[in-house]
Amino acid sequence: MNDAAIKELLDKYLTETLTADEVLQFRQLLEDEAQMQVLDAQLKELFDFQLQQEYSLPEIDQRIEQHVMSAIHHELPKPLYRRMPVRQWMAASAVILLLILAGGGYYLSTRQLPTQNVKVLADIQPGRNGAMLTLADGKTIVLDSLRNGTVALQGGQVVQVQNGALLYNGEGNEVVYNTVSTPNGRQYRLVLPDGTKVWLNAGSSIHYPLLFRGDKRSVEISGEAYFEVAADAAMPFVVTIDKKELIEVLGTSFNIKAYKEENGIAATLLEGRIRVAKNMLLQPGQQAVLRDGTTMVNNPDPEKVIAWKNNLFDFDDSDLNEVMHQIARWYDIEVVYAGYQPNIQFTGKISRNMTLKNLLNTLAVSGVKCQLEDRKLIVFP
Q: Which residues contact 134 (CB under 8 A, 6 or more apart)?
């Protein structure tokens, strides 16, 4: 089947106009690795376009796994989020993307999933855009629902909100500090006075001056943040964590993850160059992990590292503990284990727009058993 024919099938799938014969062709396509590569490329292009347009991804309910399982085989295969053979995973990931884009789309089966593993009395909505701004005098301003306009005057600069982001206009005339913090269940974006762009994940903060002076631009963070640093070779950008200067930057894009509960700091370079712990120079694509006085360098998947910035959970090669940390922060819940922690390894990407119940039903496919009581999630062996 040529590329045009695959594109036609994809278009008909998304508009729910497949004939019975075309449904069969589509299933055969999902099992052909060569043709799957073409379809996968087309899906990624569509998916990236939707994200760039800030498309509100629909909630994905339990029918996602139902559809994936039935589309690949007539019998229930291994759970989607456990490791699959490459061919099955390519097919599964494609169907997930199709369902994300089509909002549920076309179903080939009515087989039920093991949702009895999940007990939820009251659903919890996903996190959203929002933060708290603390001014130099200690006054706090909730940014969650502010409309475009001026928020405050600080150090000779006008503090404004524009399209859900905080930014500064004007020439600073004194060194005063602001802090932007995101509680669990919130994320936010801001532009520092020097033009550096910052994205804060849930449970994070950044403390910064409104006027950079001296031989460096120093900010302090906690939690997780993604930076696109404005270039200034004469004044390097320095990131401090727990009162220690750990990252020195010369105009670049990078991500820092420094949640205390995750026992370590991970600095990942996407573009440019950064120096970590004063003596380690990273190349694009490298990640330095600082833990217990030692530093390791590895090469992670950059898309996974910044998936949160693109409003996605990326659970590739993640264990249950890592997945639950992300869920706890985004949905602002407490996670506890009733007994030992199950040894489950996950694979896959999921929109962060879905409700907690729908997410838990998705994870139930891989054997996760849990019960939500108010804002406490109990995970069972």
A: 140, 178, 179, 180, 181
Q: Which two tokens stand for residue 34?
A: 């060569």
**pTM of the complete model:** 0.72
**What phi, psi does 124 have (nearest 5°)?**
-125, 130
- Asked whether residue 34 carries a pLDDT value surpassing 80, the answer given is no
Residues counted in the chain: 381
- Which residue, 279, 305, 331, sits at the end of a domain? 305
pLDDT at 115: 52
154-182 mean pLDDT: 91
Helix 20-30, helix 63-72: angle, nearest 10:
80
- Same domain, residue pair 323 and 242: no
- In terms of domains, do 148 and 282 share one? yes
Q: Say how far apart CA 189 and CA 193 lie, in whole Å.
A: 13
Tokens 């729910």, located at residue: 16
